[in-house]
Amino acid sequence: MGLASASCPAQLHPAAEAPATAASANGIAATNNTQHMKAQQIHSGSTEGSRNAGSDSQGAEQQCRGNGDCNWQTWIVRFAEYKMLSEHKQALKKALAHLQQHWAWLERPNKAALQHPSDFALLSVAPLQLQVLRAALQQVSGFRDMHPDRRIRGLLNWQPEGELAAAFSNVQQQQQHHLALRTQPERLRMQQEPDVGRQLQRSLLADAEQQTKQQPAEQQQQQQQQQHQGPPPAAGSSSGVSPPADADEDADSIWTVSKPPGRLTTKPTIGLDPRNPADREDSLGREELRRSSRRRNLLSSSWQRLFGSSSGAADQQRQQQGQRKLGRSLTAAADAVTVLLEAGKLWDQGYSGKGIKVGVFDTGIREGHPHIRHIKERTNWTHQQSLSDGLGHGSFVAGVIGSQDTTCPGFAPDVELYTFKVFTDDQVSYTSWFLDAFNYAISCKLHVINLSIGGPDFLDAPFVEKVWEVTSNGLIMISAIGNDGPLYGTLNNPADQPDVIGVGGIDNDNNIAAFSSRGMTTWELPAGTGRIKPDVMAYAKDVTGSKITTGCRSLSGTSVASPVVAGAVCLLASTLPEERRWLLNPASMKQALVEGAFRLPQLNMHEQGNGRINLPASQAILANYTPRASLIPPAIHLADCPYMWPHCKQPLYAHALPVVLNATVVNGMANTGYFAGPPVYEGLDEGGKMLHVTFQYSEVLWPWSGYLAVYVQVSPAAEAFSGNATGRITFTITSPGQLGAESKDPQSSKVVVPLSAVIKPTPPREQRIVWDVLHSIKYPPGYVPRDNLDIKSDVLDWHGDHPYTNFHEAYDALRGAGFSVELLASPASCFDPRNYGGYLVLDAEEEWYKEEVAALTSAVKEHGMALVVFAEWYHEESLKQMKFFDDNTRSWWTPITGGSNVPALNELLAPHGVSLGERILQGSTSLGKHTLQVAYGSNIATFPAGGHLHVSHLTDVAGKGAGVPGNYAAFGVAPSGSGKVAVFSDTNCLDSSHNTGPCFEFLVALFQQLLLGKDAGLTPADKLQAAPFKAAGFTAAPQRRADVNFTQYSWVLQHPHACHMSAPCQFRQPPDCPAGDAWKQKHPKAAAGSSAASTGSSGSGDAAQQHEEQPLQEDVSNSQPVEEQQQQAAAKEAEKLQQLADDANKQQQQQQPDKASSSAAGGQGHHAQHFAKEQEQAQQGQRSAFISQAVTLATFICVAGVIGIVVLWSMRSSSNGAGRGKWGRRWGYAQVGRRSPSPLDV
């Protein structure tokens, strides 16, 4: 371990002036109101303790055998200061002398640990003494905290090269039966594969000996020195801990859960497996690529035929001139990624990455790789005794960044490459390996780091906080956003961190790659909203890169896109002269990439971030760059569709919940910054002055970034207003003097952010729905199992359960039907129910405040609101069966609740006479015209008289031996006071991540019936309950698990009841509404509904009319005869023309007085004359517009009349049915399926 081909100077690298409040001030979670960045210890236990254990651990483990406490685990013990490990070791030995038999020091024979100061140690600890040891460590001077050393597993589903090819082929044959278990409806199935790593590792270690013989003598000597310190155990070796014998019992049961080895990671970020239907791209996408390639070839050949080859010769001459400048010979195919991103424009200027140091954290690279010109240093941080790449992943990534090969050129062929082998060839790594490698990267003073890895666990505190430290030292980190698309809420860490440049993937036609993960970030949930990620997009499909030895290959994935951006960053960095390179830092480079990016049409901000990188534009920004602060997004135009989805789907209106946008502040001045004062909003027009904009923001921006949460609310005085709203947000960021700059004086940067929106009249309450987003528990604080129990490997529910993530299609369906949907991230007691027709609860795993239950009960019974609940399964005994043994933490994982928290939901539903049971239902049910798939939902156990209850033939799969079909209640609608309660047993059909059959139309129909009174067939007379219903065999409601401390996972139980910034300003504690009587009004006036309806088409109009709820109006108009609809449309057009004419007449009448007054006041100067002239020009323009519209309408009527006459003539009939003529055939009335004429016809 720790082999190296060169050495960086030993030096101390503190946390780059990290402020004392850095952990809480990073500013990632807007509106969270909790220290989300606080490292939460998810489970006790860790990885195999014997790994890298020296003589100290061997003696301790021999003594442990006497008392049976041999399940030792590896822990990362962190310190507040950097010291040599010998100092840390002596301090621990002194403080823990009385516990010396229960812990052992683990040696780390690598350069970072042996030659440099370190901020952590590895200890092997006996689990039974863990709490005692933790308490003793609290007394050690400089002790910070301790965390399990997590095992990270790559699991790349692609064909490796070299020594692993044969072994991998054998393993593939053993995996074929697993692929048969995959089913088409499941979009995110990751079935448990055999432990490839352990099988590959056995053959790999044998091949590693042969590799050792072929390496230089210096490296062999280093390996021998490592061996004298003690041979490290093989990867995956255990310290005596193994799952019980019954761990594989009932392997085919839905309750048997298994997690892939190591820290939870998502699908591979490179090399999608073509054998896997879930990973395979659709044939349409492939065909589009082929057609695009053919089009380019045809255009190229046509150009040569028409114009000869002179143009091509000129291009070739220019290219050769640029090549001679660089002393190289680079040519590339027309669709090469370097060509598509116009790297040649920078090459022609003589830039090639010279002087830039880049670190590739991957699987290593061979010595003297022919594609890489400058391999400065290769280091190994694993237990595998090799510096080379036996898998091919690291070689490919390095080639994309800096290859000089003409077939697969990289972006920066003169870059200085440092490779960090942090994954073994069997794709195993540990958090501690990354920590040491990151420390060494800081000592080497790298400029850029590429991480083509990722996973959803952002609470691995040592890893996440070390990334902060790396970037705070000025290193620019680029990371892949993940390959879990097209699902939303699937961003990977560390790419989702604001100090890291997260990269998504597109194809060569600038379409988003299907596999590219989508936003938003989920760190901030449930009380906040996510940030925009990825930062930028790059080409990620069929990109060519280097193979292990020589030659090129083509691969796809976001970890291909990541080195594309890393190479582009190296090339851009080299354009700055040496005396200006002090400007390079994570913030300045992100600003150059983001501000120069090309926004992709038809994609929203959570899909593309800021768009595809644009090298020439980013170069121009860097060339004139001065340190400053900025905001992502730089402008907040809420009506800008589709980019500003979901905000652009719905205009603003009075009496609504605040619209929340979580923006990222980027500070290019220094790694630490502060808001000089609270941000200020200024309205610039009538609509803008009706907005109340409030903020939350980072106390400290570190490293290089922070957050600005923007809350937008409309004044109650605007409940009948229709028009545009324009304003601006202004704030100032201050920072200390930047290292390297000529002046060390404090810096400041003023940021002005345009804000615009569309305001419409307040819709009536029957069109308004509140969507509860507070009562979902996010991953990774606890093990919340998947709602769909067919998914065994991807066992955790980690997509956010939010209308902007995995429920985005349900959100769009409600908006498409004309409902106004507002999100409530505060308790249910923090809004006025008189404004809303419905309250929606989906897949709630959280507890409920008693104040919420009382408030919602009153809202339904007294104010006539409809409470709609989509539940999930819950069965206590089955939950106990779902535990699984995690090789990462060496401990058992147990679900903290079911698919939903049914005991808590029953408390919410109890006042209405409804409760859910412990059945777990599967099958299909018909509700009106809708056929719904029930994929592991709960059953309705009790239901009141007077309600409509649907009992369906379903299967109960709860517990072992279950699966007997029966009749169970899955859906019901019941009156409760003046309101209603609707309950469906399953949420799966609304979850875009893994539904087996969507039910978005059913959701719309349900609200149309409950709120609008439109009969959707959901309450037929034969389903009416004359007496209270009680399910057969039901004796008691499900109970909470007594063996789970739910408080440590629950946001509700950790926070007292309070209304937060996501609530209307009238409900916040304390209220922060502007002064004035208007803001004291919490709901529309009595006539507001009719007023809004009557003024919907008035006002400034054009922008607002785009947001009218047309589907609701169409539902009414579709029931009218066609003639009446045409007459009404004609009448509306006539009224519109008359209105235009009246406006023109008024303008003409006003023109003469205006001219007279202007003439009388001729002595008032040039400004008055100029104003009169502009007004006259504006009036002339309006008259011209009116005439143009009138002519267009008249022309349309004439053309329509002519076409109608022609159609009627062409449809004339004769006695023998002929005579339709060519017009009849053109319009589809003739020659369709006619038989051949017979002699009788003649």
UniProtKB/TrEMBL annotation:
Q: What InterPro entries does its record include?
A: MBTP1_N, MBTPS1_3rd, MBTPS1_4th, Peptidase_S8/S53_dom, Peptidase_S8/S53_dom_sf, Peptidase_S8_His-AS, Peptidase_S8_Ser-AS, Peptidase_S8_subtilisin-like
Q: Where is this region: Disordered?
A: 36-66, 207-295, 1074-1177
List where the protein spans the membrane. Answer: 1186-1210
Domain MBTPS1 third intervals:
632-762
Which ranges carry the Membrane-bound transcription factor site-1 protease-like N-terminal domain? 74-150
Q: For the MBTPS1 fourth domain, which residue ranges apply?
A: 763-1007
Question: Biased composition, Basic and acidic residues: where in the chain?
Answer: 276-291
Q: Which domain of life is it from?
A: Eukaryota
Catalytic residues (positions)? D362 (charge relay system), H393 (charge relay system), S559 (charge relay system)
Query: Which keywords appear in this protein's UniProt record, sorted alphabetically?
Result: Hydrolase, Membrane, Protease, Serine protease, Transmembrane, Transmembrane helix
Report the residue ranges that make up the Peptidase S8/S53 domain in this protein. 353-611
Q: Does the keyword Transmembrane helix apply?
A: yes
Which segments show compositional bias classed as Low complexity? 208-245, 1086-1104, 1123-1161
Quote the Gene3D superfamilies the UniProt record gives.
Peptidase S8/S53 domain (3.40.50.200)
Which family, according to UniProt?
Answer: Belongs to the peptidase S8 family.
Q: What is this protein called?
A: Peptidase S8/S53 domain-containing protein
